[in-house]
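Appendix B, example 12.
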Amino acid sequence: MRLEEVDTPALILDLDAFEANVRRLADAVPGRVRVRAHAKTHKCPEIGKRQIAAGAVGLCCQKVSEAEAMVEGGIKDVLVSNEVVGAAKLERLAALARRAKLGVCVDNADNVRDLEAAMQRAGARIDVYIELEVGMRRCGVAPGEPALALARAIAASPSLRFTGLHAYHGRAQHIRSVEERRKVISNAAAHVRSTRALLEGAGIACPLVTGAGSGTFMFEVELGAWDEIQPGSYIFMDSDYARNEWAPPMPRFEHSLFVLATVMSRPNPALAVVDAGLKASSVDSGMPGVWQRPGLAYTHASDEHGWVEIGQDAASPALGEKLLLVPGHCDPTVNMHDWYVCVRKGVVEALWPITARGALY
């Protein structure tokens, strides 16, 4: 099937661009840090296997159900780079830890206690990372003494392996200026170094520091405070990342993820309405871009419709014509679709199921 024959809305993956992005990351960091690619972006074991084949040691997930989908799909080393709280979730996490190498983050001593109890009941062990608050202002324990107290609690728990620190600054990924991003990550690195030194000075080995994302990972690599990076969106890119300033040492990635939409109405010469709205593409980080169609702008959306305004000198799309849209935010857009339509040079090559779609718990 050719791309123009695919029914819409459809989530399209350009395989040449995707594969180039996977190679570009691998080429940027060989031997300098480990790569643990983030599956919250793609939610697809098929993609995870390709990332591991390119050198990733395993995957990250944000939820237990995502981790279950990855393990079921053949991924055997998964870090839940998030806190897991509640009896039902901890029971599932413990069961999964019997089947794969599993890690999880903590930022609270009560959670450490509950995690230990769940692992003991299941007869399982799990890697545990302390999440440091390094500027994200979301989850995480304060650097320094609070982190040391938590490390002591983990070290005293027989079913928990203290594996290191998790230090991720999500807000930094979308700071537009390269120098501002570098500055924010330098501040985070100072917290990482001081906390790691404090732990090791207290006799608690800190084997690994993990973190970083697609907008900053080379800064974490260059600063040397991280042993492992967790980029996710680099494989796809989106319209929000495209607004970042890109300069060395950050490599430039290509857009590989698109939503294919059909022009379903031409109510006037300056407007085309497409069949991809809020249920086909996330707009939390801005509207989609119209790919390689100068003068066309996707300006707003409702549930099933998208408004594409046509500039005065733009080539006007016909009724029934198909347009490729670059999502504003790739992660939640992926979560709206059942599969990737994988295309190479305009021809459909494969369908990859988005196994962890809706895996929110």
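Residues 178-201 form the longest helix (24 residues). The chain has ten helices and 17 strands.
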